[in-house]
Amino acid sequence: MTENKNILTGDRPTGPLHLGHYVGSLANRVKLQDTHKQYVMIADMQALTDHATEPGLIQSSVIEVALDYLSIGIDPNKTIILIQSLVPAISELTMYYLNLVTWNRLKHNPTVKAEIRQKGFGDQVPAGFMIYPISQAADITAFKARYVPVGDDQIPMIEQTVEIVRKFNRTYNTNVLVEPEIISSAVARLPGIDGQAKMSKTLNNAIYLSDPEEVVVKKVKKMYTDPNHLRIEDPGKVEGNPVFIYLEAFDPDREKLQNMKDHYQRGGLGDMVVKKRLIEVLLEFLSPIRKKRKEYEKDKKIIMQMLKKGTSLANEVANQTLKEVKQAMGIVY
Ligand code: TRP
């Protein structure tokens, strides 16, 4: 048998993608598409679990996210890009897996817990939201993915998927499902421009891949730095300082960066100088992405055709897995 090099990864389409997505996962996907069989899912059903009252937003974001993928270099000739809701096998698998996970286990998923707090659900958590880790396990296993390149906030989802796979294979004495493993990035998590631990749309602290130049400049200028670095002469902190974390992730000139870090820590280097450098670095990084996006934006019909084609290929794979799953479970009539 040939080695399984399947990848399944994806994003919730609730708006355009940001630098946190890029660092945590998108950069890896661009690399991995040359060596792996990669599926990238636009998870519109998962987006509904916390945006059920805004279906219009999800529909328009599907195209936005696809444009982001294409403009950073995810190549539809190498990567299969698909729309989750158009793959019914995923919903069916979710129904079956639901019986293999306890309610208590779901309540203790750390990412789900954090999101419930962040979104202010209180005791009004949609049932669909509570179970989205199971539907994510269906996403991953439908494609027999061995690898999932995602940010570190997704670790609990992969863990939960592994548990489901083991339980399924053990219970039905089979090896139909494949245990996935996370592919982490060098910088697992990008803080927000406000210094909060995570860049996110909900927290309104993101720089988007599609932000116009002047917006990037404005956002960097108001970025949180070291709160104790009051005067230029003061020694500043580089660790946990978002401006330096971003430079670490994006500045190709490592020597210059090291010099800036040393200078900042010694004292005598102002925040504005460091921010100017970050602006330079980010505009340079985003400029070709923006150009490509402009090209692709011209014909959104072609984008949708590409997504439908990817989805059709995805359905073949997912349907086959579903068939094997039902066979293993003994519900074949
Ligand atoms: N949960 C992911 C996020 O919030 C999106 C996602 C849905 C996903 N299905 C997936 C990621 C499958 C990896 C694999 O960004």
SSE topology sketch:
Layout: E1 6-11, H1 19-32, E2 37-42, H2 44-51, H3 55-72, E3 79-83, H4 88-97, H5 103-107, H6 110-118, H7 127-130, H8 132-142, E4 147-149, H9 155-171, E5 181-183, H10 213-221, H11 242-250, H12 254-266, H13 271-297, H14 300-329
Parallel strand pairs: 1-2, 2-3, 4-5
Helix pairs in contact: 2-3, 3-13, 4-8, 4-14, 8-9, 10-13, 11-13
This protein binds tryptophan (TRP).
Task: Give a quick rundown of the structure.
With 333 residues, the protein is mostly helical. Helices cover 55% and strands 7% of the residues.
Main features:
Rossmann fold, Tyrosyl-Transfer RNA Synthetase, 14 helices, globular, binds tryptophan
Structure description:
The protein has 333 residues and is mostly helical. The protein folds into 2 domains: 6-190 and 300-329, HUPs (Rossmann fold), CATH 3.40.50.620; 213-293, Tyrosyl-Transfer RNA Synthetase. The chain has 14 helices and 5 strands. It has helices at 19-32, 44-51, 55-72, 88-97, 103-107, 110-118, 127-130, 132-142, 155-171, 213-221, 242-250, 254-266, 271-297, 300-329; strands at residues 6-11, 37-42, 79-83, 147-149, 181-183. The strands form 2 sheets. A 3-stranded parallel beta sheet has the order 1-2-3. Helix 1 links the parallel strand 1 and strand 2. Helix 2 crosses helix 3, helix 4 runs parallel beside helix 14 (300-329) and helix 11 (242-250) packs across helix 13 (271-297). The longest helix is centred in the C-terminal third of the chain and has 30 residues, at 300-329. The radius of gyration is 21 Å and the shape is globular. The structure holds tryptophan (TRP). Residues 8-12, 41, 43, 46, 136, 139-140, 148, 150, 154, 157 line the site of tryptophan.
